[in-house]
Amino acid sequence: MLMDRRTVWAFALFILFGLLFGLSACRDVYLGDSGELIHAAYRLDIPHPPGYPLYALIGRLFTLLPFGSIAFRLSLFSAAGAVASVLLLFRLGLRFARPPFAFFGAALFGLSGLLRDQAGIAEVYGPFLALYLATWLALLSGGRRFTLLAFFLAGLALTAHPIALSLLPVLVIRIIRWRRSAPAALLLLIAGLSVFAYIPIRSSLDPFVDWGNPESAGALLDHATRTQYAGVLQADRSIALLAADLEAVTGSFIRDSIPLPWIPLIFLGLLTFMIRRKREILLITVGLFLLLPGLAWYLRFPLSPDRVEENIVFFLPALPLLLLLLMSGVEAIATAIRGTRAANFGLLLVLGVALVIRAVGSADDHRFDRVDLPGYYARSVLADLPRSALLNVRGDDILFPLLYVQQVEGFRKDVRIRNRSGTVFGNNQADQRRPTTGRHEHLYSIDPLPGLIPDGLLYRAASSPSLPKPPKPPGLSGLASLLERSTPLRSLAINYLESLIRSNAHGEDQSIQYRRRALELNGTEIPGGAAGDRIARATLLADSGRWSEAASLLAAAVPPGTASPDMRLLLAEWFIKSGNREAGVDLINESILADPDDQALAGSLLLLAGEPRSGEVLLRSALDGDSHQLSALRMLQLISEKRTDHVNVIAFGLRALQIDPELYDVRLRIARAWAEEGNSAGALAECEKIKSNCVEPAILGDANELRDLLHAQ
Question: pTM for the complete prediction?
Answer without folding.
Answer: 0.87
